[in-house]
Amino acid sequence: MNTFAGGIHPKEDGKVLTSEISEICSPIPKKVYLFMNQHIGAPAKPIVNKGDQVKIGQLIGEAHGFVSSNIHASVCGKVVDVSPYPHPVAGAKSLAVVIENSGEEEWAETLNVEQDTENITPEEIRQRVFSAGIVGLGGATFPTHVKLTPPKDKTIDTIVMNGAECEPYLTCDHYVMRNNANEVLEGLRLVMKCIGCKKAHIGIEANKKDVYELLKNTLAGDPSIKIDLLEVKYPQGAEHQLIKALLRREFKPTQLPMEAGAVVINVATAFAINNAVKYKRPLIERIITVTGNGVNKPQNLRVRIGTPVRDLLEITGTSVGLNKIIFGGPMMGIAQGSIDNAVTIKGTGGILVLKDQSHYESRACIRCGRCIVSCPYGLNPSELSIMGESMNISLALENNVLECKECGCCTYICPAKRPIVHHIKFTKALIAKQKAKK
């Protein structure tokens, strides 16, 4: 079965909690908090003011530069604030537009209307994706229109669609594939047309054989799109590992997939692309897995962007002893300092709620080498973490610290319970600070 070197697989991945549960539309929030930086690149610039009335899908934040993304109102109502708020991923306060819901479900003019796409051009596809504010919904939040605009000197021959969903506990992509197979595949075909690719490859982990069979039957022998089962192993869905497993191509960790002649999109992103191109629907909502032993009823919820997490936990209920909330999954997610300030953003694929979590004391590295064996990028995580602790930036650079993707395999496998990824992130922050000074 197709796979890659390194990686790990947690004994209990938690997917059973929500993999067979039907989606629930969460109630429309009374108030949404829409950050201007919900994507990689330059933050959007707010184009509304306090007191303005807005409709669903209306542009409220304009992309600032090529690598940026538009932000749209996810509810109909009144702008009650345009101020910095604590960001659930970036950590520091960040500019957000706050909208009080009027209770109406009125879309902005010309939006949410079926479009004729029979003769649509690649440039029109790209423009609609840009206008809709589509970003990578697998967690990276890279502006999708940028992916659809590869440099002229780069030859892209294959589109790779990521249906692996290797992060433990999360099943939002599984849900999208199971319930929107046609729309996901149409989104993939639109990407192929936009970039001019004649072939595509879909990778799905073997623990999702139901959607593997569904997509295979839906394709009905389409020779331009191939679909493969992948070994259940984390981080199977990372771009480097996915391309290695499906296409047998290699490229450096610091390079983009285009260096291997490929563009990678997530299945939820493909679904959003279909909605943007065929119906002119901006990215205002997504499926989010709310799960963990800290909630009473784990669910896949259809959620408006900017919804307070507390609203979602009122639906699922919380257990006694809750002591950790993570945006994303347990491997690469971001722990939240407070439930009161946490709101969903475009890249929020899951909210993991845990109770009675132990606090481990880290010890000195015992030189067992397990982190080296598990590292999918062939690095020496233990040494990099020690360099980070001692703030030896130059030595960390010499040992390729920037090639680390912070997947967390090393931290998970470490018997000394060392916060390896934490030290590496800290080192990268110091490097970025030095570069900024220069």
Explain this structure to me?
With 438 residues, this protein is of the alpha/beta class. It is built from 13 helices and 17 strands. It has a six-stranded mixed sheet with strand order 1-14-13-17-15-16, sandwiched between helices. The chain has a four-stranded antiparallel sheet with strand order 2-8-7-4, with no helix packed on it. Helix 10 crosses helix 13.
Kindly report how far apart the N and C termini lie.
47 Å
What composes the largest sheet?
A: 6 strands, mixed
Order of helices and strands: EEEEEEEEHHEHHEHEHEHEEHEEEHHHHH
Helix-strand makeup class:
alpha/beta
The count of helical stretches stands at 13
C-alpha-based Rg, rounded? 21 Å
State the share of residues found in helices, binned by percent.
25-40%
What portion of residues belong to β-strands? 15-25%
Tell me the layout of helices and strands.
Blueprint (H helix, E strand, L loop, with lengths): L23 E2 L5 E5 L9 E2 L6 E2 L4 E4 L8 E2 L4 E10 L6 E9 L20 H10 L12 H4 L10 E6 L8 H8 L1 H15 L3 E7 L3 H11 L5 E6 L8 H9 L14 E5 H13 L5 E7 L7 E6 L4 H8 L5 E6 L6 E2 L14 E6 L14 H5 L6 H9 L3 H6 L10 H5 L6 H18 L1
Parallel strand pairs: 1-14, 9-10, 9-12, 10-11, 13-17
Antiparallel strand pairs: 2-8, 3-5, 4-7, 5-6, 7-8, 13-14, 15-16, 15-17
Concise account of the structure shown:
The protein contains 13 helices and 17 strands. It has 438 residues and is an alpha/beta fold. It is globular.
Summary tags:
single chain, 438 residues, alpha/beta, 6-stranded mixed sheet, 13 helices, 20% strand
